Amino acid sequence: MIRGNQTSVQEFISLGFLGTWYFRMALAVLFSVMYILTILGNVSIIALVRTHSWLHTPMYFFLCNLSFLEIWYTTTCVLKAIGVMLVTSQTISFTVCLLQLFFLLSMGSTECFLLAFMAYDRYLAICHPLRYSSLMNRTFSAQLALASWLCVFLAISVLMSLISRLPFCCPSVINHFICDIDSWIALSCADMRLVELAIFIDSFIVVMVSCVITLVSYIFIISTILRIPAAQGWQKASSTCSAHLTVVTIWYGSAIFLFLMPSAQNSLDLNKIVNILNTILTPLLNHFIYTLRNKEVKEALGKTVSGILSGFRKVEISSK
What we know:
By secondary structure, this protein is mainly alpha-helical. The chain contains ten helices and five strands, in the order E-E-H-H-E-H-H-H-E-E-H-H-H-H-H. The longest helix has 34 residues, at 94-127. The chain is globular. Residues 1-5 have low confidence and may be disordered.
């Protein structure tokens, strides 16, 4: 069934956040600061891991993959959102909007599997410490990371081929700061039940499979921790589980809301708030959570800062 006047859409108009000029400027400044902190934090994690040999382990390999992904995931969303709020770039072409949706879905799905593989890595490290180096070697960890990127991108490409053929109604106005699933559903003139079903199945597989891997891994982790002395057990639980579980809770909570229940009836204003959680806030918090609660990364950061300060002192002394 076709609803409304079907048209060949060449570009969309993104409304972003409605409100006064001061409100939009404040949001633009806030998004800019959060974006800069996200880029600096994730680049710092990658640099620290690459420059300190004791961090060349599967756990930090997955963390680098996560940091690399979040740099591009945030960039895909935030730069255009800032332009929309500044009213300097409210129009977005059909092709660019489709590409933004593709990267949002594919990188979001990849993050689900990276978080799951990080949980599986911790399961092997805690539950099978003597066999850990042989079970989770560099080759296997690289294969897991490659699978999380490649398989998801291929699966989302199939879904995007279906979404790209949708007809659209006038006016082509997106009540959002990014091109997301709900915006496309709201603008389409076609009967969306088949598309919504395809999106649900794809999202269900990604979210549920990765969530099951994470949940089962932590069940075994916790059961193992409870069998060792209490003081050591709780300390290990805090350092190993809490940081990852915090990120997982925020990420999966917003992902389930956004991708398992896409519908034209969903409140797009509510979706904007939820989208801020997984496109801006989570990438910002991740590097703080993983570094501030990790002794090895804090030690590497301390040595790096000390080296930089020492270098400045030498330059200052030589200049005198």
